[in-house]
Amino acid sequence: MAWRSSGLTNAELVANLARNGVYNSERVKAAMLKVDRANYVRNREDAYDDCPQLIGHGQTISAPHMHAHAAQHLLTYLQPGCKVLDVGSGSGYLASVFHHLVSDEEGGLRGKVVGIEHIPQLVQWSRDNVRRDGLGKALDNGEIELIEGDGRLGYPEGGPYDAIHVGAAAPKLPKALVDQLASPGRMFIPIGKYSQVVTLVDKDVEGRVTVEDLFGVMYVPLTDRPTGHGK
Ligand code: SAH
């Protein structure tokens, strides 16, 4: 499916993803239409290709079909007013999509999205991207917070989170992230070293945790911070 949904414009890409059954929700569609992927890539000519793209520092922005899958699977926990943590926020693209999903423009219910990324240059670039995409106000008022840190530890100050998205593969489920999940709450996380599986981690109202494997993927790993990226 990886390259089937490419388009010539953002609207075409978002429509093709729906046509190919990657998502089926009007809310996901509306949010993805509000976020122009061209503002989150290095090479704008390839912005609407349904494939990952290098964003520098050895990292990639994930393919649009993975972004759409993530939003669709977390959707129940992406209601207006919800709190979201995006681990390995990279380009900032998903943080912006999540922001639109948890913010009710008319009703005034504003959620909060925290993106945590360990490469400082990407953190700065992602803030610029989000601003270029018209969300400067959300950054200024803290509805979107893009911070530098080790995502494996999460960001307890901002939690508990209704939804946690992890954009890089963890060798095993990080306990800190499970702890920071609200009851109820849901995490979307690729797990595995060589063969990786996207896993849904659900915490119910009583705090019971269940895990469901979804499908195999190839993500960059969650790692220690690379050297040479000092402040
Ligand atoms: N979802 C993002 C980025 C995906 S690539 C996007 O689509 O743009 C995964 C990102 O995770 C990279 O930017 C990488 O730097 C980051 N990352 C890897 N290990 C990390 C860690 N321990 N803490 C925080 N970020 C990490």
Automatic annotation (TrEMBL):
Localization of this protein: Cytoplasm, Cytosol
GO cellular component: cytosol
Nucleus keyword on record: no
EC number: 2.1.1.77
NCBIfam families: pimt (TIGR00080)
GO biological process: methylation; response to stress
Principal location listed in the UniProt entry: cytoplasm
Annotated function: Initiates the repair of damaged proteins by catalyzing methyl esterification of L-isoaspartyl and D-aspartyl residues produced by spontaneous isomerization and racemization of L-aspartyl and L-asparaginyl residues in aging peptides and proteins.
Record-level Gene Ontology MF annotations: protein-L-isoaspartate (D-aspartate) O-methyltransferase activity
Catalytic class of the enzyme: transferase
Protein name per Swiss-Prot or TrEMBL: Protein-L-isoaspartate O-methyltransferase
Species classification: Eukaryota, Fungi, Dikarya, Basidiomycota, Agaricomycotina
Pfam family, one: PCMT
